[in-house]
Design brief:
The structure holds two protein chains of two kinds.
Chain A lengths: L2 H6 L5 H6 L1 H21 L5 E7 L2 E9 L4 E3 L1 H11 L9 H21 L7 H28 L20 E5 L2 E7 L1 H42 L1
Antiparallel strand pairs in A: 1-2, 1-5, 2-3, 4-5
Helix pairs in contact in A: 3-5, 3-7, 5-6, 6-7
Chain B lengths: L2 H8 L19 H11 L3 H10 L9 E6 L5 E7 L4 E6 L15 H5 L17 E5 L2 E11 L4 E6 L4 E7 L6 E7 L5 E6 L3 E2 L10 H4 E11 L4 E12 L3 E7 L7 E7 L18 H4 L5 E8 H9 L4 E3 L2 E4 L1 H6 L3 E7 L2 E6 L5 E6 L4 E6 H9 L3 E4 L5 E3 L1 H4 E6 L4 E6 L4 E6 L4 E6 L15 E6 L4 E7 L8 E8 L15 E7 L9 E7 L7 E5 L14 E2 L4 E2 L10 E6 L2 E9 L2 E3 L2 E5 L3 E8 L8 E5 L4 E5 L4 E7 L4 E6 L12 E7 L3
Parallel strand pairs in B: 12-17, 37-40, 39-45
Antiparallel strand pairs in B: 1-2, 1-33, 2-3, 4-5, 5-6, 6-7, 8-9, 9-11, 10-11, 11-12, 13-14, 14-15, 15-18, 16-17, 19-20, 20-21, 21-24, 22-23, 25-26, 26-27, 27-28, 29-30, 30-31, 31-32, 34-35, 36-37, 37-38, 40-43, 41-42, 44-45
Classes of the chains: A alpha+beta, B mainly beta.
């Protein structure tokens, strides 16, 4: 038995597969759903912040996609310069540049995972499960990095304390009420991560007995050889 | 973080109060209304008028008036029914708030120079909105200058003047601007006649040397400019051509033009040794003057066939050619007429003789038949055929004294302003309009007094193929006692009338004082037909070309570049709340080309830019770029600053122009 065989795990007997197509098909099908959800999420906003103030009757909007910042970025930057906050484009540049490729890689990993019947499948699936949490943590870190490191020479620097606006829910900065929401992309990614966890359960139910049997077989063979 | 401390400071950045300080409103009821009405002496009719016109904050107007500004040289934009002044557009005259004529727009104004002389005022009379199929399309506005016979083009994407052209043939116009139903041409007609190009000729040669004319300015909609090379004129007898209107639908291709002074009076009253009646009498002697009927589509063909003479640089169809080609016919109209207005379907032409209490209605079908059958009552002194009055006249309606102008409603009503009666008359049309209302055809229905001396009047889209009715505005010349005193120069009075109900109900519902000019005609367009920009489409936009200026300064590319021994170029940006760069140092005598871009994208984030001594002030709307050129001939230290209160740190938005003395 090669190392590759070990990673890929046991193959299913053709008769067994025909008899129990639902059992063996379920994890792969769920992983397919997760892949579709992630691919859709690439094209829709992940997160948004609305800034409400009297002189902006239509409010200001900041919309984050995996690879892009949209909305009233110029206007928000223009206001932020008064308090010495760096331009928003400077935040998460690497994440925005490579985020799409990473997600595509994760989708390919899901594709591979559906062929792997051992516990190693978890390794391939883990990034997608943790992605929504990683996104929010990264967002929080950037927000606090920007909010806590204000230019001391900015026009209003002596009248503002460093701050971190809530990354979900509402808060207040000056005359602005900030309302941060998860976008459809983040919601889809979160659903995908739930679907993947369910897929893992079905994966375990379908393949764990096969892995066990294979191990037992191996052990028996070893004993026989000895 | 201490939110309260932060809040109190940050509120400054926009200058508004937000949370926790909103006022509350007491519970109110109709008894409060009655109480206030009693205290202020308001009648039920007043309260209804208030309810029809009061426009609370944030509510937008339903219609927009595009009003001439008279000798203020501007155009006024006013909302209906609120009657609030929304904007004044500088056209023939510099205006500092819009930054027009103080560094930017000077080339537009210069194009209106008259024989090399700056004429920095104008007498705007008759604005004309561009039309598509005889209906306002809300894209362009044209307006004439009576004093120097000029025509201007205003772009309704940014409500700014884009072009002024000077008529090379005459020096005074009144009949303009009038557009053809698809805005192919903009008409301008001479009024106080002069020899071609206002050259010198003695008054004794009036009949031989003085000329009437109509100019057809070709409008290039794509470029948004009058195309002078494709424009031409038609010579007319030296009557004083007055107001005009284009035919539409049935009469499309024709142009109707009033005239006064068919007497060819030359005045001279009060001149020592001369025994002549004053113009006011000399011009009013004949019982009838001439309605000019011009086949402009045929004239266009004659022009394209090259049957023209070049006079003062313009192609002119001479009067004898116009007669020979059958372009021009006359027909008598009651004495000293003023307005000529074509009914919505183009089937009737309504003429008001200001010294005759009637409006006279001509049938276009009859005019066409009379032209075809040559039903002439004779020819005038210049050989122009005169159509027999009785063969072309459809009806006359006695409306009152001093009828001037007529507008139309959707319900078969026509509205005529009565200068001497100080009233608006509502009367009924006949023909296909007869069934649209209860009253008999060609009958006076009612008159509403207005205050005072009404000139033009405007009904909502009341000169298009589909009038809306609903509102009518009386453009009154005198206010007398309507407003509190502000010195001997009184404001004009625009009065809004409710014409939404048929019959005799036609009350005045609002008085709007206008203390910035003396408007003549105005058009009233449905607000939703206008689609102006809220900011310029891209940063670096040049409003004159309506495209991005490749030389526009950009953020992070600001600089001062020496181009030569005595030439320097500035690339500056403006954004809340700073100019970049803040110091500009030049040498005395340098020619400075100062380019500046407002890089803002927020609605209303306009920056001003002014330099003292050098008489420069600009308005830079979001995205706009401007280029100003001047010779820095005065050495010194000159603070430039933002003149438009842009932000809490607006006062800090300044910089220094340092002009170093040259040894």
């Amino acid at each position: 038995m090669t190392f590759i065989d070990h990673i890929v795990g046991p193959r299913v007997d053709q008769d067994d597969l025909k008899k129990n197509s639902l059992k063996y098909g379920a994890p792969g099908f769920l992983l397919l759903i997760a892949r579709v959800l992630i691919l859709v999420a690439l094209f829709v906003p992940f997160w948004s912040m609305e800034l409400v103030a009297p002189q902006y009757p239509e409010n200001l909007h900041l919309i984050a996609y995996v690879n892009n910042l949209a909305g009233d970025v110029a206007e928000i930057n223009s206001l932020n310069h008064y308090i010495g906050m760096r331009p928003l484009e400077e935040a998460a540049q690497i994440e925005r540049e490579f985020g799409v490729y990473f997600l595509i890689l994760f989708v390919i990993m899901l594709e591979l995972a559906s062929w792997i019947h051992s516990r190693w499948a978890v390794v391939l699936i883990l990034p997608i499960i943790t992605f929504p949490a990683v996104f929010l943590i990264d967002l929080y870190l950037w927000m606090s990095h920007f909010g806590m490191n204000l230019d001391p020479d900015a026009p209003l620097s002596n009248s503002i304390e460093p701050f971190v606006p809530p990354i979900l829910g509402s808060g207040f900065i000056g005359q602005f009420e900030t309302i941060a929401r998860a976008g459809p992309g983040l919601i889809l990614a979160t659903i995908a991560s739930g679907v993947v966890i369910i897929a893992l359960f079905f994966h375990w139910r379908a393949y764990a007995p096969l892995v066990k049997a294979q191990k037992a077989e191996k052990k028996a063979a070893k004993q026989a050889a000895a | 973080m201490t939110l309260s401390r932060l809040g109190s400071k940050l509120i400054l950045t926009a200058g508004a109060i937000s949370l926790g300080m909103a006022s509350t409103t007491m519970a109110q009821s109709m008894s409060d209304v009655q109480k206030i009405a009693k205290e202020r002496g308001l009648t039920t009719q007043d309260l209804v008028a208030a309810a029809m016109t009061y426009t609370p904050t944030g509510m937008h107007d339903e219609y927009v008036i595009m009003s001439s500004g008279g000798h203020s040289g501007q155009v006024f934009v006013i909302g209906v029914p609120s009657m609030r002044l929304l904007k004044s557009i500088a056209v023939f005259t510099p205006e500092p708030w819009q930054g027009y004529g103080y560094g930017v727009g000077n080339d537009i104004l210069d194009a209106g120079n008259v024989q090399g002389k700056e004429n920095r005022w104008g007498d705007t009379h008759h604005p004309a909105l561009s039309e598509t199929n005889g209906d306002y399309d809300g894209e362009w506005l044209f307006v004439n200058d009576k004093s120097n016979a000029r025509m201007a083009v205003i772009d309704l994407r940014d409500f700014e003047t884009k072009q002024i052209v000077k008529n090379p043939l005459f020096i005074n116009d009144h009949g303009g601007a009038f557009v053809t139903p698809n805005t192919d041409y903009v008409f301008e007609t001479a009024q106080y006649n002069v020899p071609w190009g206002a050259d010198y000729a003695p008054m004794s040669e009036y009949k031989e040397e003085f000329r009437g004319a109509v100019t057809m300015w070709k409008f290039d909609r794509k470029k948004g400019r009058l195309d002078v090379d494709k424009s031409f004129s038609i010579e007319l007898p030296p009557y004083w051509q007055d107001i005009a209107d284009c035919g539409k639908l049935e009469s499309d291709g024709y142009f109707f033009l009033n005239s006064i002074n068919t007497e060819l009076a030359t005045g001279g009253f009060g001149v020592e040794g001369m025994k002549a009646p004053p113009f006011e009498a000399g011009v009013s002697m004949n019982a009838t003057d001439y309605l000019h009927i011009i086949n402009w589509k045929k004239a266009e063909k004659v022009f394209q066939a090259g049957k023209t003479s070049t006079i003062k640089g313009m192609e002119v169809i001479l009067l004898k050619t116009a007669i020979a080609e059958g372009l021009l016919h006359l027909t008598p109209e009651p004495r000293s007429p003023h307005g000529v207005d074509v009914t919505p379907k183009g089937d009737f032409i309504v003429v008001s003789g200001k010294l005759d209490p009637h409006v006279t209605i001509y049938s276009f079908a009859k005019i066409k038949a009379a032209i075809a059958n040559k039903t002439y009552s004779g020819h005038d002194d210049f050989g122009v055929p005169v159509l027999d009055f009785d063969s072309v006249m459809e009806a006359q309606v006695e409306v009152g004294l001093g009828p001037l102008h007529t507008q139309f409603g959707p319900d078969g009503y026509a509205y005529t302003s009565l200068f001497l009666d100080s009233a608006v008359a509502r009367w009924t049309l006949g023909g296909v309009y007869g069934n649209l209302n209860a009253e008999p055809d060609w009958t006076l229905v009612t008159k509403t007094p207005v205050h005072y001396n009404i000139g033009h009047l405007g009904a909502a889209e009341g000169d298009t193929v589909s009038p809306d009715g609903k509102y009518l505005v009386a453009f009154n010349k005198w206010a007398v006692d309507r407003f509190i005193g502000v010195g001997p120069l009184l404001p004009q009075n625009f009065q809004l009338l409710d014409i939404s109900k048929p019959g005799t109900h036609m009350p005045v519902i609002y008085d709007m004082p206008l203390g910035i000019g003396e408007p003549h005609y105005a058009q009233i367009i449905k607000a939703d037909k206008l689609n102006p920009w809220s900011v310029y489409p891209e940063v670096g936009w040049d409003p004159h070309t309506q495209s991005v200026d490749p030389w526009a300064p950009r953020a992070k590319m600001e600089r001062v570049e020496r181009k030569g021994e005595r030439e320097i170029e500035v690339f500056m940006t403006a954004v809340r709340s700073r100019f970049t760069p803040e110091h500009v140092t030049v040498k005395q005598g340098d020619t400075v080309k100062w380019r500046i871009t407002n890089t803002e994208r927020a609605v209303d984030a306009t920056h001003g830019f002014s330099i003292p001594v050098y008489n420069i002030t600009l308005s830079l709307e979001p995205g706009e770029t401007a280029t100003v050129e001047f010779v820095a001939d005065v050495a010194g230290t000159f603070p430039f600053y933002c003149t438009e209160f842009c932000s809490a740190l607006h006062l800090e938005m300044m910089g220094y122009l340092m002009v170093e003395p040259r040894e």
